Amino acid sequence: MVEDKAGENKSSKSALKKEAKKAEKAAKKAEHKQSNAENQPAATPEVDVSIGKYGNLPVITSEKKDVERKFTYVLDLNKTLSGQTVWVRARLHTSRARGKQCFIVLRQREYTVQALLNVSEAVSKPMVKFSSSIPKESIVDVEARVSEVPNSIASCSQQDVELIVSQLWVVSQSAAQLPLQLEDASRPEKPEDEGLNIRVNQDTRLDNRILDLRTPTNQAIYRLEAGVCRLFRDVLTKKGFVEIHTPKIISAASEGGANVFTVSYFKGSAYLAQSPQLYKQMAIAADFDKVFTVGAVFRAEDSNTHRHLTEFVGLDLEMAFNFHYHEVMLTIGNLFTEMFKGLRDEYKNEISIINQQYPAEPFTFLDPPLVLEYDEGRKMLAEAGVEVGAEEDLSTPAEKLLGRLVKAKFDTDFYILDKFPLAVRPFYTMPDPNNPKYSNSYDMFMRGEEILSGAQRIHDPVLLTERAKHHEIDISKIAAYIDAFKYGCPPHAGGGIGLERVVMLYLGLDNIRKTSMFPRDPKRVTP
Amino acid sequence: MVEDKAGENKSSKSALKKEAKKAEKAAKKAEHKQSNAENQPAATPEVDVSIGKYGNLPVITSEKKDVERKFTYVLDLNKTLSGQTVWVRARLHTSRARGKQCFIVLRQREYTVQALLNVSEAVSKPMVKFSSSIPKESIVDVEARVSEVPNSIASCSQQDVELIVSQLWVVSQSAAQLPLQLEDASRPEKPEDEGLNIRVNQDTRLDNRILDLRTPTNQAIYRLEAGVCRLFRDVLTKKGFVEIHTPKIISAASEGGANVFTVSYFKGSAYLAQSPQLYKQMAIAADFDKVFTVGAVFRAEDSNTHRHLTEFVGLDLEMAFNFHYHEVMLTIGNLFTEMFKGLRDEYKNEISIINQQYPAEPFTFLDPPLVLEYDEGRKMLAEAGVEVGAEEDLSTPAEKLLGRLVKAKFDTDFYILDKFPLAVRPFYTMPDPNNPKYSNSYDMFMRGEEILSGAQRIHDPVLLTERAKHHEIDISKIAAYIDAFKYGCPPHAGGGIGLERVVMLYLGLDNIRKTSMFPRDPKRVTP
């Protein structure tokens, strides 16, 4: 083992020497090309001992293929590498000159490490000066010796070591003026120090999303969001679901026609789908049995709230069942359980990084999940002094209160509310055969906010027509929908989940714009 | 083991008995409710010994939860179940009465089995008559004994057994008149019997997509398509890529403004994204390092060809690299190799079902994939008598010819063509530093058709501005794009893949409408 390591070091040292020569050449070339460029080491009367060890690299145009340099990840910089020479490509997070020294913090996604330049035999004054003048957020290549530190560095994620820099090259230079400071954007939001520290407001963040997304918190949020999608698909695929893709451009407004975006389509016009529901149901009528789809969903609602977007990512599923829609409802419930377990077990690190900036109680859930009937929910609310009529929907405040009551009683942030009043659900919802006031429909909640709405859909064209008439819907306008069930269709149920809401509520965040990488609302279509 | 099995049989028998009783009750109820309904066993003067064993079930409204009936999949019906009584829920594919018998073919997705009703002590004449009158495509519940057959049944997927029916219930009845026959839609396309058999044309299929999608071939195509998506994501996730979601509604036309759909957006207007490229690049500039996204892509091109859609599913990826764009190009090449291996190994059955209807040569590929330079491709074409200028793009016929030449020489249906002329690529493509006429860009081909176009993108705002000016692009209109690179950006490359094209070409199909579940073209926005 020891021999192997020595061997590795040797070969990596010779590679580094080669590299140093190459870099020197490149630097000279760069100097030649960009002799008038800013930040270029100025020609000094003294001999600069560090010439060829620092500067601006030319733009990487893939000129050379056989570069043998291996980069070490910032995450991997720790005591075990102590004494070794490494190359790191990272962002210059901050730099601070102090006399003959320059302290730099290098950042790579969620991880940071301190780097140090000291005027010495190998490091010239101009090199230190150059280092301190590199604009923050530039990408740099650093050659350095890993050095253990006596006192841990609290301001960096890598606290046990620092880097003693021997080469420093700018790979991609940032503009000197930043519209927001990463340090400000990364600052914890604690109510107690409100007003003491600079905050970056939501619009400034979103207007400069490229910078904002670089904070450790945002790096972690979008990695976790990718995890939610992956878990959703993996769990369902294992259960025999088939992924389908449904069209976003549709010929008729899917749900009643309100809140739909119009698209000009060649010489005519079309609409953007508000839900993939019809297509999921068609897939069921076409024998796919269990389907899911992940894709953009559009709502032309002029709602400027913390939880509405005009475009969001829908995680939708639909499933044929044999006898009872609970076969589907409990499949969805189990899907959530599996997702929550996956997040808890695989994203510990991300959750902890996010909690440092946005503190929240850990998300709790039961296995199997809690199922409450709507009437039980109403009773709990009534006991807390809030009356909800038997055929009335829950208001948002009532939903939130019920979430708190459920949490207090059952210690779960996730639950299923079953058997909603028929009167508050769409016409295609299957009525409860045992109580005509109720329906075979359910909502699911996270931290007291609805994240899924679903139901058994009417799969019989006669009953569907009857219910549509009862809702005073023009049958001729939904003929294509009704016809989907004309050639035999199994009983089925399903639901749709908003991805950004799930991530927001799982993490206990306060705004859906924190969990949509490029959010769209009535006032924002950029960047 | 034997004991266990016996136990299982016993309990399942008692469950079935219970079931039979329940079904009888249900049937009586159904009879009562729907006494005037069509296909209801008519009251005959003779006693019908099968009463309670057949009929139309009421619509399944989830009235009962504790139904213990277990269904057997058609796929699992084979000799090992011989002598056992099973319940099957499937479509009535065809039925044919012959004297005192009725032959039924039951279909479940890709699988079919023969079922037989014989007038006997247990099966009445009216029951056989009822059976033969059930409309094709209805969903039925069948109780039957599995019986080995002396001669294999060539017309069914389950060739060794048939079902001797003891109960037959209609769960969901199809309309009697079908706009297309599943048998016609499933018929192999062999050039030799052109004109002899009824075919279903593309538009009839698409107009009645719910029926068309029920053919074994379509069931297999969309299962395989789901597999392509899954493999794409799984391979990339293992390589450290992060899934992102990019907005479809954008404020400015992404690539030049031609061929873009306009959306009315509250009081203003917006566009549908033609590609997620800008957003993938922003994610790279925001330190996500390696990203992919799967989602709808919109092209307002009035192209009515076999391979164009106005909305398709883009499988897009983008990746930062250290020194050379081949780091990315070869990652994508390896992604394809892994996908092809996965399809070959995991979708044998689907491929064989599809090939029965649409015969095609098996897809061949090399590991690692073949990489040709554009100039080599030009030379091969020139040798075959087709001249392509050094700064000219390949025409579609030239592409196809080159595909055939490559296949003949290297025996691969997949290859990478590298170093396209700079003149034929978009302004943001990185020029080749070693030859200003060429660029760091590549296309990838399957069976001679392009399925991915990609390149190293210019990550330096100065060079990007210079190249845009060279292309006579109004800089003010792409300011937001250029600004994305202002705060430091690593060198990066990527590409975009059309899902439907990959599936079409992998399977050797002739039209992209065969691989889009609900295709959109200039003339079609329904269903």
UniProtKB/TrEMBL annotation, chains A, B:
Major subcellular site: cytoplasm
Stretches the record annotates as Disordered: 1-45
GO CC terms of this entry: aminoacyl-tRNA synthetase multienzyme complex; cytosol
Residue ranges, compositional bias (Basic and acidic residues): 1-35
A biological process from GO: aspartyl-tRNA aminoacylation
GO molecular function: aspartate-tRNA ligase activity; ATP binding; RNA binding
Entry-linked Gene3D superfamilies: Bira Bifunctional Protein, Domain 2 (3.30.930.10), Nucleic acid-binding proteins (2.40.50.140)
Compartment list: Cytoplasm
Entry's EC annotation: 6.1.1.12
Keywords: Aminoacyl-tRNA synthetase, ATP-binding, Cytoplasm, Ligase, Nucleotide-binding, Protein biosynthesis
All copies of domain Aminoacyl-transfer RNA synthetases class-II family profile, residue ranges: 222-527
Top-level taxon of the source organism: Eukaryota
Keyword ATP-binding: yes
One Pfam family this sequence matches: tRNA_anti-codon
InterPro entries, A to Z: Aa-tRNA-synt_II (IPR004364), aa-tRNA-synth_II (IPR006195), aa-tRNA-synth_II/BPL/LPL (IPR045864), Asp-tRNA_synthase_2 (IPR004523), Asp/Asn-tRNA-synth_IIb (IPR002312), NA-bd_OB-fold (IPR012340), NA-bd_OB_tRNA (IPR004365)
Enzyme class: ligase
Family: Belongs to the class-II aminoacyl-tRNA synthetase family. Type 2 subfamily.
Protein name in the entry: Aspartate--tRNA ligase, cytoplasmic
Organism annotation: Phyllotreta striolata
